[in-house]
Amino acid sequence: MSFAVGTRVEQDPAGWVATEFDGWGRGVGVGVVVEPPYPLPPGMVDVRWPGGRCFEPIAGLRRVGDDTRG
After folding, report:
1. Where are the domains of the chain?
2. pTM of the full structure
């Protein structure tokens, strides 16, 4: 399963993997899946978080208000 552009997502603690970008707000709050600037590998999406934009593995995300991962 994957997320369509425009899907509102949040961090899924069960699959989230921290990176050095977490310090500037990666994964904080609600993000929106956006169109990536180039094709991404399978299982990845481009997310615009309130603190910035980052490529994310769908295993670390879930739809807002949903307990089901991508």
Report:
1. 8-63
2. 0.89
Residues pairing with 48 in the sheet:
32, 53
Distance from CA of residue 6 to its chain's centroid?
A: 11
Q: Confidence class of residue 65 from pLDDT cuts 50, 70 and 90?
A: confident
pLDDT at 70 over 90: no
Measured CA angle at 2 (ends 40, 48), to 5 deg = 60
CA dist., res. 47 & res. 25, Å (int): 12
Residue pair 47/62 in contact (Cβ under 8 Å)? The answer is: no
SS3 59: helix
